[in-house]
Amino acid sequence: MQQLALKLWSVLRCYGAEGLAAHVEDGIHLAQQLACRIAKDPRFEIAAPPQLGLLCFRLTAGEQATHHLLDRINTTGRALLSSTRVHGRTALRVAPGGHHTRPDDLEELWSLIDDSAGHP
């Protein structure tokens, strides 16, 4: 419990309450922007509505294609996505809440996702 309290104290000391709230809102906004792009592309589907800056999506081509996409993205070293299961199916996870994450980073990530997924 003390470790958790120390982490929270450190974050509040660094950001302040208003700064922390703004940082969380920025992560949520970035995830929503990426979700809009993904939702417009027929190759993808949103696996679960974005929550607190966490976005889960997958390829509509199925499990194997989604796993291959994850491997292609992570192998580049330009981004690191994780996976999870949503409704029994694999989904890729993006959580753009890092301290240094900016809108340009999400543009680059989208380009990487787009290129790595290939075109129909």
| Strand fraction | 15-25%
Helix content percent band:
55-70%
Report the count of strand segments: 4
Shape by Cα distribution: elongated
Computed CA radius of gyration, to the nearest angstrom: 16 Å
Order of helices and strands: HEEHEEH
> Averaged pLDDT, please?
91
- The helix-and-strand class reads alpha+beta
Major beta sheet, specifics? Answer: 4 strands, antiparallel
Tally the helices.
Answer: 3
Strand order of the largest sheet: 1-2-4-3
Low-confidence stretches: none
Task: Give the N-to-C terminal Cα separation.
Answer: 50 Å
Polypeptide structure, described:
By secondary structure, this protein is an alpha+beta fold. The chain is built from three helices and four strands; from the N terminus they run H-E-E-H-E-E-H. A four-stranded antiparallel sheet has the order 1-2-4-3. A hairpin with a 2-residue loop joins strand 3 (82-86) and strand 4. Helix 1 (2-40) crosses helix 3 and helix 2 crosses helix 3 (103-117). The radius of gyration is 16 Å and the shape is elongated.
